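Figure S4 source data
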Amino acid sequence: MEPQDPTPLARRFERLVESTRFVQLMAQTFSTLDLTVRDDIADTLGALTSSYFDCRARLVLLVDDDTGALRVAASDGFADAGALLSAPGQALWTWLMHEKVATQLGPTELRSRWPEAPAALCEGMACVAIDVRDRSVGLLAVAGKRSSEPFDEEGLTFLSCASGLAAMALANANAHELELAQRRLAERRAEEAAAETRAKQAALAELDDRLALVEAQRRQIVALSTPFLQIGADILVLPLVGTITAHRCEHLLDKLLAEIARRHVGFVILDVTGIEQVDTNTAHHLVRVGQAASLVGAQCILTGIRASVAQTLVGLGADMASLLTMRTLGHGLAECHRRLQQR
């Protein structure tokens, strides 16, 4: 007895089981490959869907994020893929994406909507929009079934499932791209911050170097501005130029006391010929120097006081009584020699 043909209900059940298994296979494939590039997702989606239907042509369109226009992300079985984006073609794809649901178009309806449609589509096609968060981001289409059978309800259901898998894969790719963009932004900002920090550190280091150089030059200038000249064994001459500040006076005192102790001199001549302006502070500093010298056993003589400086000192009421004053350095030296001869 020959076996009877399966009933339409039994065939439909078999197709549902087959489509369910294939959807599971597609899900496992996407999970295993972990695709994050949109065109790779489109190519895998089109190949698996075409394999299920055993079609000669397949097409995946995606919306370009920058321009908002449709572009061919993956295709096979078309002589001229560029013709798929002609004005009538784009109008058809846009209408199908707005329809949202899986749709099959027979040869007659396809020709009515797109008279110059590529030959690979003219045997009839099935397509479905790809939606991510309620926004159509692309379209999946297959055409030219080798069995020549029309696309049935079970096939359209399978297309809807395939579209859902594609939506999840594309959403994952979007999240991956966003994560990469945020990571690149964070890395760029970190690099900029590091570069700014390095620049600031370099500027601070340069400033420190300049300040150190200025300080070294200042010390050198101070040292050069207080040269000690020894005349014979007992006379130390200190020519003063510029301004006698409190800081310079402290330096002068320290160095003078050290030189008197080191050289064992009995006379110190402070020559102020190079000091053009004298005020109360300057006079006070000079008195301090003289008193300090006398405390360590050296007689201090102040020379080089010009008439204008003398008038200023008198006008300021400066107390110079503790200092022996002479008009010129020569007079000061002569006085020192005279006193040395009297010893």
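Figure S5 source data
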Amino acid sequence: MKTFPSLRFWQFSAALIALCFADFATAQPPATAAAADTKLDEPVKPTVTGKFVGNGKNAAIQFVVVEEREAFSDKEAIRLIFTEKDPATVKKPSWDAGFGKLGSALVISVFYDGGIFGCEVSHSAHTKRGFSAVGEIKMAEFKVAGGNVTGHVITGKELDAFGEKWEVDLTFAAPLPAKLRSGAAIPPKAPVTEPKPIVKEPRGSAKKETKAADGPLISARKLALPKDATDVEFKALVKHIQFSSPQSVEAVTKEFSANLKQQGWNDGKGGLMGKRNAILHREQGGAKLTIMIQPSGAGSVVKIFTEGLDWSGGDDAGSSAPKKATDGAADAIEAEARKRIQDALKNFPK
């Protein structure tokens, strides 16, 4: 099984995010507007039964809601949010689920053909609460018809992620969001585009000269983390760093910001500071950092999504993921992470 720390929003959780291999489980042939029954049925009452177990403790998942989300890899998709607490009055259930405001929660991104490409696990019994995992979780059954969604999502057995045990076996039914229902339940098939020709740059081109002028890349493993950072994890596959701190969100934000400033990092646009959470953007040359700081127990957890850093010089720390993956899988993971970050920024609590 391939697992990664969550982008938890992602959403932050998102982003974030983070972010999930393309070994998709398919429950039925791809749905299309032409093949699907576009007749709308009455919206079903959301129901969910089964188990969501973390470290031997079953979460009382009682609610399921479907969220609209942007297409992923040019394929239409939706997001399923399973929670202990009622999300009826919540504007963005996936957001609150990522922050643990809805109790234990499972957030799944799925194509209309049943292929899962995103899974966030947030169980109250987990010490490292909030991680992403895709590989062995799948849709045993999945159907989108008449404006409703039904399915059966399972792991098939107890899985292990970063030392946290988890297992899923949930059967559910829920109506699509009103906007998707009004669109005849099944979105149109993405248009087919002609592949672009590959043009090789001549030797000594301006593009290569620009790259050389940028100088050596900054090492991901030499970022100036807070002195009390613990459980530091470097995830080269998704270019993601995570660590914990006994300090408060405010204290970690202050110290980490000062450390990065001394290291030559400049403030980027779009940073936010809420009462309990913070998002920082830092830039240096062609490198960028998106830093999410959230409360965790008596301290904080920090997640860093990076771009343009040097990830050579060491294997991923603390990861149970295999060392090899296809470039396509890595791209999919990173794309999902960036998407969840953008979702998070739109709904960040002031």
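The chain has two domains: 2-181, 216-346. Residues 4-37, 184-213, 317-330 have pLDDT under 50 and may be disordered.
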